[in-house]
Amino acid sequence: MSDLEIAKKVALKPITEIAEKLGLQSDEIDMYGKYKAKLPLHKMDVENSTNSKLILVSATSPTPAGEGKTTMSIGLSEGLNRLGKKTTVVLREPSLGPVFGIKGGATGGGYSQVLPMEDINLHFTGDFAAIEKAHNLLAALIDNNVQSKTNSLGLDARTISWKRVLDMNDRALRRIIVGLGGTGSGIPRETGFDITAASEIMAILCLADDLEDLKKRLGNIFIGYTFDRKPIYARDLKAEGAMAALLKDAIMPNLVQTIEGNPAIIHGGPFANIAQGTNSVIATRMGLSFSEYTVTEAGFGFDLGAEKFFDIKCQSAGLSPKAVVLTTTVRALKYHGGASLDSLTIPDTAALEKGIPNLEKHVENILRFKVPPVIAINKFVTDTKEEIELIIAAANKMGVPVALAEVWAKGGEGSADLAQKVIAAAENNNTDFTPLYDWEMDVQTKITTIATKIYGAEHVDYTAKAKKDLKKIADLGLEKLPVCIAKTQKSLSDNPALLGRPKDFIITVREIEIASGAGFLVPITGDIMRMPGLPAHPASERIDIDRDGHITGLF
């Protein structure tokens, strides 16, 4: 059966029953129909959250074959609940771009899913729409101020860095001209659209502590310069209050359920190759407030989402993870060992052995943060005993616990061994989580530290544009912000063609964007796409709805 067919066979529990598992009554949640709810911010217990154990699920470098972090996160939470550990899984929300593009849905798979999957994948509770509207309100205010004769800040339109956003893959909108049509239609200038998940508003929402912090961060968004080189921020346009008002519901985390009827919190959805790649601080704290264990995931491989989870989110919010589950698959490691995509279901121990160094590098990276790793082999039916034993032998050689997980096929039952090893790792963890770098370091040192220690680069080069950006950052007094490096997810390097564990490569920083509202800098390496395009045959072609409102084609 497809994921959607499996999901439709589940008899959903009323969301009030799921809330009761967290200790919340029906009048303490904001219901969105029978099976979804918002969790009010005042229910978050920051003091109690320190007693819960936070588990991060990450992965080896992504491949077109998929590794299954979300499926593993959900399956692990089911397994922990089966062992009597009160557990909540906390995930990101799907973007409509990938849902209708290549990836399809993002609610897990098989018997490790969050439900109702159709609602979650299609609009959900409107959080992305609210983020989109808040972002585009600021864009409208900027162009209005440039046009204004009585309320002008003297903003130089050539320096405006703020684009518009849309939650859809649409390559035609990457670069556009606005303001055409005469003097009444604005000042013509070049701009463009990013996808909503790439919006700084998304990053801000996911790092904010509460509504006041949200509003402050929104006001700190850097827009551009006046003609006399004075920096202009969103607060200069008096935009933060109205933007925050649009986000008053979106800032509340969403409560849904897993296939096995356990709580799942889903909130926010920044991509990990261009933003921090993790759900909101508020959602994570909410999970920690009500659970013994909180399982969360970070986008793409450990070098991207997990590094940013540790160095940006954990440092910003004072979180201290107790263990990391490193998800990998036989076929992903074979791909990193040189096997072609269409041959990954064919037994190939030689390619697997060549790909294992990618796994080893990610384990080394986890240990840099003084957090214990547990390797989870996401099992597929085409995996052979010999291939699985090769990965287990590699894990044993590294001295890292390893478990074979069948969460797609068996749900929580398939994660029994993994759950036990995660409990052992978390409860025996006597070390303190240690960030990779100190925010007080200069910008280049922070970039070099990540590039050399996490990616394995030999050196970092800067283009003339990047060097100019470094000076601008210094002039604005933003040197103490952490760095959120934008890099391809396909390789440890900035070259997507370098698979496995590349060595002796150089990372080139093309430019550095300022996300002062979110509270980080974005060094851009390689060719990073903020507005994806659709493939020749997008996933939308298979999605349909019948006369009774039943949706088909979501995976």
Topology:
Layout: H1 3-8, H2 15-21, E1 30-31, E2 37-38, H3 46-49, E3 53-59, H4 69-82, E4 87-91, H5 96-100, E5 108-109, E6 112-115, H6 117-121, H7 127-147, E7 164-166, E8 176-178, E9 189-191, E10 193-195, H8 200-207, H9 211-219, E11 222-225, E12 231-233, H10 240-246, E13 254-258, E14 263-266, H11 281-290, E15 293-297, H12 302-317, E16 323-328, H13 330-336, H14 349-368, E17 373-378, H15 385-398, E18 402-405, H16 407-410, H17 416-427, H18 443-455, E19 459-462, H19 464-475, E20 506-515, E21 520-525, E22 544-545, E23 551-552
Parallel strand pairs: 3-15, 3-16, 4-14, 4-15, 7-10, 16-17, 17-18, 19-20
Antiparallel strand pairs: 1-2, 2-13, 5-6, 6-13, 8-9, 11-12, 13-14, 20-21, 22-23
Task: Describe the protein.
35% of the residues lie in helices and 17% in strands. By secondary structure, it is α/β, with parallel strands linked by helices. α7 (127-147) crosses α8, α7 runs antiparallel to α10 and α14 packs parallel to α15 (385-398). The chain is built from 19 helices and 23 strands. A hairpin with a 4-residue loop joins β13 (254-258) and β14. The protein has 3 domains: 3-125 and 250-427, Rossmann fold; 127-246, Domain 2, N(10)-formyltetrahydrofolate synthetase (2-Layer Sandwich); 443-525, Formyltetrahydrofolate synthetase, domain 3 (Roll). The mean pLDDT is 95. The strands form 6 sheets. Strands 1, 2, 3, 4, 5, 6, 13, 14, 15, 16, 17 and 18 form a 12-stranded mixed beta sheet that branches. A 3-stranded mixed beta sheet has the order 19-20-21.
